[in-house]
Give the backbone structure.
Amino acid sequence: MNAADITNPASPGNNPESNPYALNESSRARTCDTTKLPVCFDAQRFIRLNAVLAVVFLLVGGIAALLLALTRWQTVHLLPADWFYRILTLHGFNMLIFWILFFEVAILYFCCTSLINARLYSRKVAWVSFGMMAAGALMVNGIILAGKADVLLTSYLPLLAHPLFYLGIIFMAVGTLIGVFNFFATLFMARRHKTYEGSVPLVTFGATAAAIIAVVTLLHGAIVMIPTFTYSMGWTAQPDPMWYRMIWWGLGHMSQQVNVCAMVAVWYLVATLAVGAKPLNEAVCRSAFVLYILFINIASAHHLLVDPGVGATWKIWNTSYAMYLAVLASMIHGFTVPASVEVAMRTKGYIKGIFGWVANLPWRNPAFSAVVLSLVIFGFIGGITGVTLGTQQINIIAHNTLRIPGHFHATVVGGTTLAFMGLAYYVVPLIFRRDYIWRSAARIQPWIFAGGITLMSFGMSFAGSMGVARRTWDIDPAGAVYGPPAHVMLGLAGIGGSLAFIGLLLFVLLTVGTLLFGRNNTGRAMESWGEPRDIGDAASVARKTDKEEHKTPGTLVLVLIFLAVFAVYYFANWKALADVWPVR
Amino acid sequence: MSIKPPPSNWFQAPSGNERLWIGLALMWCLIMFVMMPFWHLRGQQNSTGEAYAISPRDFQAQVEQFVERNQVGSEGHDPIVEPPPGGDAYLLARMWSWYPILQLQAGETYRLHISSLDIQHGFSLLPMNMNFQIIPGYDHVLTITPQAPGEYTIVCNEFCGIDHHRMIGKIIVK
C-alpha cells in the first residue's frame, strides 16, 4: 500500500478547535495501522455485526444452491419436488436479499465514517436497523423451512404465503431503510460540521448512489408488500396480479441495481487499496453513478416484456433505461476501473508494450483477483446477456427460461458476490484486525468460485436457449423436446454450481477460521497480500507521470474487444429471433 | 485516489481514450435502442401486450364455447380443436394443464387468446422457445402465424405449484 497517498482525509490544522464530529479528534475512534484512515468504533462494531450475519446467510444460501444444482442436474435429481421449490425460495432470499443487504449496510457504514472522517450518526439507530433486519431474515427463513411459503422469491399473486412471510420481508425492508437513514444522517452531520474538505471521495459517492437507489427500491417493496400482507391476513381484497408484478419488480430488479452500484464502488475501493489506482477523471466516474440514479429505476420492465396489459412503447422505453443510459454508465465504469489500474501501473514504471502492466498486476492478492474476475464476469457474461435478453423482442426467446438465471448469476454472483468476497480480504484484517490464515488457499479461492459460476452460467444459458425452463423440478415429462444436449448443459450447470459451492465454502471457512484463529494485527500494519513495487528510479517515474497520465492503450484494446463480443452476441440473438413464428 | 476527497478542480471534461470510449459506448447504446422500434416496423416477432380484462369464469365459458363449435377429434380426454383459418383460437391454462389441444394450419394467422383459471402460468412453445406470460384476469392475445407442419409442445415455465413440471400441452400444425 502506498502510505503517502492514503492519508487522513481531514487536515486537523484547519480546525483549531476540537470538532466532536471529526473522527481524528475523537476518543471513540482509532487510526488504522495499515491505511492510516480513522476508524469509528461504533461503525466498526456494526460493520462487524452486519458482515458476520451476511456470511452466515451466504453459507445458508450456498448450501441451498448446492442442493438445487444437484437437483436440476437431471442425472442426480437429488431433492423431491416440494423441497426443491422450498429450497429454491430459501436460496433466493438468503443470497439475493440477506447476504447482500447485510454486507451492503456494512459497506455503507464504512463509506460514511472512515472515508470522510465522520463518526457514525447513531448507535441506537444502528441497533434498531440491525435488530429489525435480523428479525425479518429469521422470520422469512423460519416460515420458508416450515413449508408455509413455497412461493419462490417473487411470490407472484395469486400464490399466497403465510402472513409472517410478508411481515418478515417488511421488517427486513424497514430495517434496511433505517440503516440507510443512519448513513444519510452521518453524511449530513459530516458536511455540516466540516469533518472533511471539499467533495466526498468517489467510493463514498458511489455508496451514496447505491443508498439513494436503495431508498426508492425499498419504497417499492413497502408499496407492494403491505397490501399483500393485509390480503394474506384477510383484511383487504387481493391486489391485481399484474400490478403486483410491476411494483414487485420495482423492488426485485432495482435491488439488483443497488448491488451493481455497490459493486462498482467496491471495484474502485479495491483498485485503490491493491495498486493505488486513482480515477482518470472524477467527473466521468461520478456522472456515471448519477446515470444509475436517474435511469436504473425503470428497469422493472425487464420482467414484463412478454406480459399482457403493458404496451410496446412502454416496454421499449423502460427496458432500455431511457435509451440505455444506465448501460452507458456501466460501460463507462468498465473502462474507468481498468484504465485507472493501467495508469497506476504505468506510473510505477510498467510501461512495456500494450499489456506489459497486466503481467505485473498483484495476481496473488485475492481481493484484487476477485475484483478483476468480478469485472470480467459482470461485463462479458452478465452485462452482455442482460442487455440482450432485456431487449424487448429478444425476450420472447428468453423469458422464464434458464437463460435468465444464466444471466443474473453472472451479474449478482460472479459480479457482486465475488467483489464482496474480495473486499472481505481487506475487511477482516482491517476491521476485525486479524490476518488471514491459510493464505495460499485464499489466493486461489476467487478463481475456484469464478470458474464454477462461469461454468454454471454457460450451462444454464445454453440449456435455456434450448427452451429449458427456469424454476422447474423436472424437464423429462415434456418428452423428447429436450434432447441429450439440454441434459448435458444441465449437467454442466450442476458441475459448475458444485464447484462454485466449493469456492464459497472455502471462503466461509477461511473467513470464519481467521476470525477464530487468525493472528491479531493490532499495533502493526496488516500482513500485505503483495503489491506491485515501483520499478525505475523516482525521478524517471515523476517524469513519466505526466506523459503516462492518460495513456491507456491496454484498456482501450480490452474495451474494444468487449464491444465486438457484445455486438456479435446481440445480433446473433436477433437472428435467432427472426427464425421463430411471426407473432405480435 | 478514490478514497480521499478529490482536488477542488475535479469537474473536468473527459479526454483521450476515455472520451473516445464514451462516444463509442453512447453510439452503441443508441443503435440498440433504435433496433427495437425498427423491429416493430420491419420485424415479424413482437410482443405488443394486447390484452383484455376478463374474469376467469367468463374466459372458461368462452373456451368451452370455442371447443364445442370447433372440435375435430380427441386424444385421450383432451379435445382436439381447429379454429377457422384466420380466426380466434382459445387456450386455457390451469393447474396443471393446457386446454384444449389446438390444430392450426401452417401459414394462416390466428388470434390466440390465452388466460389462466387460477394462478400465473408461462406459455412456452417448444421447440421454437417462444415464451409469454399468462395472468389470471387478463386475456392475452397473440396474433400468431404457425410456419412448418408438425407437433409442438407447450411447457409451463412460470412456477405454479407442486405439479408445475407436468403441465404440458400440445399444438398440432397441419
About this structure: Chain A is about 65% helix and 0% strand.
